[in-house]
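Teaching note: in complex prediction, the entire set of molecules is handled at once rather than each chain in isolation. The prompt given to students was simply: 'Predict the structure of this complex.' The entities are:
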Amino acid sequence: MRYSQYLLNTLKETPADAEVVSHQLMMRAGMIRKIAAGIYSYLPLGLRSIRKVEQIIREEMNRAGAIELLMPMVVPAELWQESTRWEQYGKELLRFKDRKEADFCLGPTHEEVITDIVRREVRSYRQLPLNLYQVQSKFRDEIRPRFGLMRGREFIMKDAYSFDVDEAGADVAYDKMYQAYRRIFERCGLRFRAVEADTGNIGGSSSHEFMVLADSGEDAIVSCDSCEYAANVEKAELRDAGATAPAPTEALSKVATPNQRTIEEVAAFLKVEPARLIKTLILRTDGGETATVLLRGDRELNDIKLCRLLCCNEVELADEETVRRVTGAPSGFAGPVGLKGRIFADFEVRAMADAVTGANEADAHYTGVTCGRDFTVETFADLREAVAGDPCPRCAGKLEVWRGIEVGHVFKLGTKYSQALGATFLDAQGQEQVIFMGCYGIGVGRTVAAAIEQNNDANGIIFPMPIAPFQVIVTMVNPNDAEVCAAAEKLYADLLERGVEVLLDDRDERPGSKFKDADLLGIPLRVTVGARGLKDGALEVQERRSGTREMVPLAEVAEVVAARVRSALAG
Amino acid sequence: MRYSQYLLNTLKETPADAEVVSHQLMMRAGMIRKIAAGIYSYLPLGLRSIRKVEQIIREEMNRAGAIELLMPMVVPAELWQESTRWEQYGKELLRFKDRKEADFCLGPTHEEVITDIVRREVRSYRQLPLNLYQVQSKFRDEIRPRFGLMRGREFIMKDAYSFDVDEAGADVAYDKMYQAYRRIFERCGLRFRAVEADTGNIGGSSSHEFMVLADSGEDAIVSCDSCEYAANVEKAELRDAGATAPAPTEALSKVATPNQRTIEEVAAFLKVEPARLIKTLILRTDGGETATVLLRGDRELNDIKLCRLLCCNEVELADEETVRRVTGAPSGFAGPVGLKGRIFADFEVRAMADAVTGANEADAHYTGVTCGRDFTVETFADLREAVAGDPCPRCAGKLEVWRGIEVGHVFKLGTKYSQALGATFLDAQGQEQVIFMGCYGIGVGRTVAAAIEQNNDANGIIFPMPIAPFQVIVTMVNPNDAEVCAAAEKLYADLLERGVEVLLDDRDERPGSKFKDADLLGIPLRVTVGARGLKDGALEVQERRSGTREMVPLAEVAEVVAARVRSALAG
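The expected output is the structure of the full assembly:
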């Protein structure tokens, strides 16, 4: 492609509404343009990367035995009513009426439609297993669309659905998809983790998220430094170390702590480590109950673990009035000594002696507090967030903490949708059975955005070769120099002939501005064609990621560059 | 692909709501399934044909220098308000509100969105010309969706938009697209005509429709038997032959024609050819005017030509009361002799002598009517529909009449959208100029459906090789015979290795039912692997279209079949 004939305008300024680096760079590199909040056009350069990710996905889905079809974006309400999601799904489901006042929605996901297809087409166990997928534009009416393609409203997704005769079959299908997803993200050239995840409102019994690692990621994840264990931090299990409190060396003693409320304030005031404090949280559940939770002073509560223990959906810190009623003191001075009501504590608290807690009295704390002697706990449980260095729940390794961006999600759905819509089959004995399902999604645009979050520097994008919109950029230093022009055109033709995807920068622009654009676009290899190089009979080949430059004899450039592209694609 | 693992159920019965043969066959062959009125899922087999058409389109669009991008399906009202189409477009534009009560529509076409992109990206004449296209699902809320993919509501379309500095540039862009479209439909293996067409409500100055020829087509088109001229019958021009009436041989004479009203009735009653009658139509325009139009008795009025002459949008036959007021007689007895008011006549009427017309009196007609002597006409013009045998308006050839299905449409848009949305550029002199546009659409699903309308027989579809979902079907006559099974598997592998797209019918079904399915699916070549053939060391290769069968030595089958596929694709 000739740059001068392409629709590709780079921006010098970062758009004001672009908060994250992938959004900023995709806008600046002319990959996407906003049409409305959360709704983008993919300009030619952006579409090229999107299509590459799609192609890798298709190849791996087909290799795993999945079959491609295409469902409509406009879906009749009836199907969503059958699954009861018409009522349950929030405002993210964009509902509307057609000209005949019939109810429809824009599909945010297609469990209902695919289950409807399968219930009509599948009669016998002989037709199973099946795995059906599509690559399609979906719509979710996010209340706060942002971060460009990361959280858009209209977005391209690959969604697959597996259908099996029983749970064992569904497990096999799930594992196949899990492995296919690993291959997909490996082939995209991304560093990622597959982590255990919550199943959320889509239903189902187990799930993994595929997370592209990036410091800017929205999600915190943990992974073991020696085994395959990885999980969303919300889901990361911590074992009970089984330790009990050592023999205390101090007696319980009340000390004045005027205006010292937070862990940090009290620790500093009493000159002890925060880990010596017992954090006492007075909480209210969505069921209206009050509960006290104890954690080591340097730990954070994991809401999801507590909700699971208390069988509730949400917890929040109690208001000041409730704190005063429960503890008899203003907030900041709560502690378990003498406290009434249900007390829950993280496993670690059981091992604490000579600790510091609030005294349930304004401006006062206790020192010398020992669990078991000075207070008792109803239930010890795993209630805190995992941190780097925590022991792995599966082996003797230690956990590492990463930030990541969710790009894929695999779910075991069980029979939730097949039951609701009546997707059944006749087994070998002629008995009607309900189909077991799984669903498997990849955000295509999100994968490109996550790749950019993971691969960029101050100068712009650094595309991994497999998803780069172009593999090579040939920069004509001076297009008005006939010799430069001819040499660049020849190299362009030679590379195209070798199957390399080349952008020929034939614009009448200053060389510095062309180099800046090449860096911004993130094309993996750049060849500079200028008068100086031609005089020396060699052209400069620069690698975008490492910045290394090398002079390659003119006659060899096309072959050397083509070989590098092939080798980078082979991994 | 193995049939036993594929999602492909053929239907024996024709679905009751499928009126046209392509709809019937696409349903029966398991290519599509209806989700709601005019909304279909493309099952795997159907999607394969769709993708092949898409791929041919992409290759030819790229070859013509067009650049692919992708615009959203959900479009904000603001852009449509700028072009004023938000108000003008009928209920086919599906409008809705998002969760924040902002107005949106589902894009039925994307002139507004692309013009918005271009006005933001293009500043200088140096960036032009540009031709941008996408392949995308669109939505039109048809009041009466029908005929399967022919007139759906959600449908896949390739839409392209060209941008040029002036009208001459726009003409070049238009010609390039015209040629690209010819190549696309040729490469799809279809018989078609590119015809001059009306521009309709999309605006613009000139347009061609690409019509796939099929007896079941909705549109009538004409083409010259010796030059390239072709047009929609509504648009087909007929020249003034310049003839005047010969010397009359009869005097004007009133005859009784009791209850004889129609051309056919009067001609039969008076024992003359219908061509001897002058058809007299009393019409009302949408402006409320009354006009009388004369045609030769065997001709049909072309409304569009008359509207152009009268500068109105619509004409309809006047009601009985108006007819009585204008002619003084009940309808069925009107004629130009002695008639008041404006009289328009087709060129042919000028050459009529000794003709028959109504006498403007109940149950009476005149014979011996001669134009010029017995009545006068305000304007002679081309007012009738063309018929087979009419002279070509461009050369000495004669017109042929066909029925066709519109699958593509190219328009010169001029500056309608660029003016409305302010898409301008600075010319070489630094002056701001408005961009000239063209738009170019192909219905992808419609092309597949039209191909089936054109290519089928009593047994099913007959796919042209380039858009066949599979190129070859290998029919295992008895999958329980180990030798048959091994030979079929080997042939399957050998064909795949040669890049042939094969469906291996490995189902445990009766051979007759497998052959029936193969015919229904329309796969161009079938190889039958059975015990008898294996014994003789040869396999039967059958061509779907001609039905010819041939025994090919076992060792050569893969190569012979692969060669036939290659040769069919090469055209």
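Point out the following to students. Chain A is about 25% helix and 30% strand. Chain A touches chain B through 55 residues (CB under 8 Å).
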